[in-house]
Hints:
The structure is a homodimer.
Chain A: H1 9-21, H2 26-33, H3 38-42, E1 45-46, E2 54-55, H4 72-106, H5 118-127, H6 137-150, H7 160-163, H8 168-177, H9 184-194, H10 203-232, E3 238-242, E4 252-258, H11 261-271, H12 274-282, E5 288-293, H13 294-304, E6 307-310, E7 324-329, H14 337-343, E8 348-351, E9 362-363, H15 371-389, E10 401-405, H16 409-417, H17 425-434, E11 439-443, H18 455-466, E12 469-474, H19 475-483, H20 489-495, H21 498-510, E13 520-524, H22 529-543, E14 552-556, H23 562-573, E15 578-580, H24 590-604, E16 608-610, H25 614-631
Parallel strand pairs in A: 4-5, 4-7, 5-6, 7-8, 8-9, 11-12, 11-14, 12-13, 14-15, 15-16
Antiparallel strand pairs in A: 1-2, 3-10
Helix pairs in contact in A: 4-6, 4-9, 4-10, 4-23, 5-6, 5-10, 9-10, 10-23, 11-15, 18-25
Amino acid sequence: MTAEKSCDPSVNEMLQIAKKKGISTVWDRYRAQLPQCGFGESGLCCRNCVMGPCRIDPFGDGPDKGICGATADTIVARNLNRYIAAGAASHSGHAKHLAHVLKKVSAGKAADYSVRDEAKLVAVARRLGFETGGLTVSEVAGRVADAALAEFSEREEPLAWVESTLTGGRLAKFKELGVMPSGIDAAISEILQRTTMGVDADPVNNLLGGIKGSLADYAGCHLGTDLSDILFGTPMPVFSEANMGVLKEKFVNIALHGHNPVVSEMILAAAKEDAVLDQAKEAGAEGINLVGICCTGNELLMRHGVQALTHSVSQEMPILTGALDAIIVDYQCVYPSLTTVAQCYGTKVVTTMGIAKIPGAVHVEIDEENALVKAREIIALAIERFKARKDAPTFIPDVKSSVVAGFSTEAIVGALAKLNAQNPLKPLIDSIIDGNIQGVVLFAGCNNVKVPQDSNYLAMVKELAKRDVLMLATGCGAGALARHGFLTPEATEEYAGPGLKAVLTAIGMANGLGKPLPPVLHIGSCVDNSRAVDIAVALANTLGVDIKELPVAASAPEYMHEKAIAIGTWAISLGIPTHLGVVPPVVGSSLVTSVLTQGAEDILGGYFIVETDPVKAAEALFAVIQKRRGGLNLATRAW
Amino acid sequence: MTAEKSCDPSVNEMLQIAKKKGISTVWDRYRAQLPQCGFGESGLCCRNCVMGPCRIDPFGDGPDKGICGATADTIVARNLNRYIAAGAASHSGHAKHLAHVLKKVSAGKAADYSVRDEAKLVAVARRLGFETGGLTVSEVAGRVADAALAEFSEREEPLAWVESTLTGGRLAKFKELGVMPSGIDAAISEILQRTTMGVDADPVNNLLGGIKGSLADYAGCHLGTDLSDILFGTPMPVFSEANMGVLKEKFVNIALHGHNPVVSEMILAAAKEDAVLDQAKEAGAEGINLVGICCTGNELLMRHGVQALTHSVSQEMPILTGALDAIIVDYQCVYPSLTTVAQCYGTKVVTTMGIAKIPGAVHVEIDEENALVKAREIIALAIERFKARKDAPTFIPDVKSSVVAGFSTEAIVGALAKLNAQNPLKPLIDSIIDGNIQGVVLFAGCNNVKVPQDSNYLAMVKELAKRDVLMLATGCGAGALARHGFLTPEATEEYAGPGLKAVLTAIGMANGLGKPLPPVLHIGSCVDNSRAVDIAVALANTLGVDIKELPVAASAPEYMHEKAIAIGTWAISLGIPTHLGVVPPVVGSSLVTSVLTQGAEDILGGYFIVETDPVKAAEALFAVIQKRRGGLNLATRAW
């Protein structure tokens, strides 16, 4: 926990190798950037026209306005909005990609893909209000794909993936504020226009635009989850392992990195083919070992139990084992530095998407119509590298943790149904009412080189678990907890308070696990934060309250991506108080800062809690839960 | 020309007042920003995630990579792409707004608006391939509006407003490069995704994405022109005046500022109503004097001969006359500082669009269904202010120039048809062939506080006019030339070379003007750069060549807006060498700089010429023209 760079022992082992070999890593590049620009850090730098760049002096000794007259408040709000727009474009771009695949599946034009979860397809179609009786799977898939693609265009009706997935209270609030997006791509473009020189100078009006953009991001996330489940299956609990010890010296080790399962599912399918396995064996390997990085890894872990290699800030490290033969990437959160480090080892870095190339990588474009063929081609590259390295020593850290993952909403409801088949949510609600579960906290987001890797997650989870707070986790947050053994029944035994332990044990026993569920349920990748919303909405609707009254909160203790800012903004808009463990680039405006951290509570119910000390952050989230419990006339507890 | 801040005498007069009264202006704010951040100026600052901000040391003494490993090339290309995306969002947002108005007009839901130019409507519909026979105007309008709105959504077919308006050679090139956008908003979102942390690290691939985004911008511009013409009329030559001397002490002076005629056309209509005029007279005014700022001003000047007050960097100045009663703004290029300066004078600043508010302004929201009613309400605010100031002294500079404007493509073709009704382009082509017209240069873009206002325009136009180069102008560039008397027959007499003078005189005489046309033809607002493309495409198709072979070039000698970067990028993509008189924020990457200024010529035919000295810039453009003339086997000339 006092580690300077990472709390992960395998990362620290690799850092020794990097040091010895003189290989530069993300931590070296971070140190080289210090001190970082204070104007940028506080949001006070504007580059939105070529009269600038302009900077506002936060101490009042220099300029208080940009050349056009934009104030600190305006500049900070505009910069925040552009982060949100980029986040929304990323999540929804991922979702749009899936919608095209589903569309092609429905039209019989993507032979390598199929609808693997017909029940989910029908459930989504019905949620959208479609009649499905008498229709073939392809027909239903076509309608859902069309509805998904229609979300991106501007239109008269509110976004179906917002309207059909939230509480009535939230929808009424969004209509009242005028923040219902009229189309995902339309909302993104609107932000870019309003933040350009000479358009929206009103900081609060800008923030409303940002909220609208964040709801477009929410729709993109939910679409991403739904369409992935339809195409590749809805996750159900699986056992697996995480951390660099999952690499196998004698195998062709292939890491799948990025976010969208569209590529990795095909690599997985190809890697199971006899011909491909034979190829690996002919090269002298015992087999092919697929492992995951970041959210592509989460998608594979959730659906197939594929082992998680590492996450986020440590993505360069596995190359230093010498045992990683290829990293196959789709898009988002992929460090361009991978190719530089890989060059020292011969590890193949393979890019697969036209919008995401990296100098020094091999590019093998994958589309819906050639996916398996290309997947085989890519695996052949990894095998080729294995052949070249097989007699060389490897340095695989003997570090891995067991993991229970796969907690989709459907899986959680299914597990609860073992306690109460009629009303599966009742055991959970009863536990919240009687205080065995004090509330629920969602951990989301990334690692950030500014925080010793994983440290905030670990400290917060320990504090909250012992106070009977049930936790959910997504993305690299879930990955951090996975690598440190927090997604296990044993973690419940070790860290959970008595109430939480009792509930998790009851559910675990009823499901034949013979042990409690983990104290943190891995609900998926970043887009799968939508699963947490589904659970919150189900709780709220069952209780007859709005989300903003529930004893729930969220935390992004080590976030770094624009996507995380978009998610955080929709979380507070949905009425969920959200902790940020890294100071967001808004502190240059006391107005924007106070709206986001205070005023938002009155308007939205949710607000940001910025706290870099993880114990204090846990305390703040526990206080939120207690306040919300009080609001529902439930018994409260002191910290 | 040696003016420090502005070459405009009325601006310099107002600056004396500002100095005396201690009122801060854009030039003061610029001075306060000096020295500007060199990282931002060179494009070497990345704020696309919260691990940053990162900076690359251009001198090689500090970091050569961002924390994620992004190089200078990657960072510069990404930043450029985000400028292009914001520019495209602005132009196309403006166009989308017009499409919604046209749609409501077609549905009978926007009583204050109508199709004023049925011939243009039919021409656009036919260009799109629609049968119009037997359809009512409303029906055709509905189809064109639907086609326009469909441009924003992702779809299979290329953008209709790209496909139907360019040469076959250009379309083939864009398909070859994979840069045909699949939807305007889709292309904008794609740029945001590809430029976020961990997506596209390949600088050249990023630049291709930027070109795609710029073509989305081009579609937005052309849509903006077409829909404005349909709704408000296609401009035909008009006489008017420009500069602050157009204010009238005894009148209620109202400036219309921004870009979209949707608001200003309603103010214009309301200002002509008897009841409204009576209101003004009751307040003691002789009448209502509407004047224009920036492109809203250009739209009104082009269609109605409304006088142009000022442009871009001098937009605060007219307030200092004391005679300006209200500034009514829609969006884009509106300095938030207007309200600060206006406060000293009581001038009303009225915002009208939900996405464009300004602290300190009165907000009166205008939509398609309440436009005239709200227009009257806004004029009443101006009258109220007139009442309060009517006995106070005013300081209106006695500076104005006469202007001939209104040169839409249709107007230019119409004027040429007076020389050759069968083949109107022939006189122009013959003049180019025989060298009386050496070539055509389009002046576009803004004023930028970094350049003494108008100085680059004036110097370049003088150099090119005397060398028989015909010029077109849009936006604040056209405004600059208008204020300095270059949009007049007299300017042809004074500055044009003998060949150009002969041609312009022949056209002027044939059109009953009794004088030559101006040496620079005002073709409209920024979106109307599309009119220049129409002319180039018509020339290319008539000559049987591609745009990239024509002796044409463009210049944005004092640009500053993200929109200008988007326009410049599509201009080079269309094969038009384009001069930039302000160094764009890309010089931190020698790769990006060399692709844009050199490599692009091979790939696209167009490329950027960066030159801050206007005479050298004119020389460079003349050299382009000579090279292109040589390519067509036309006689060439030395500088």
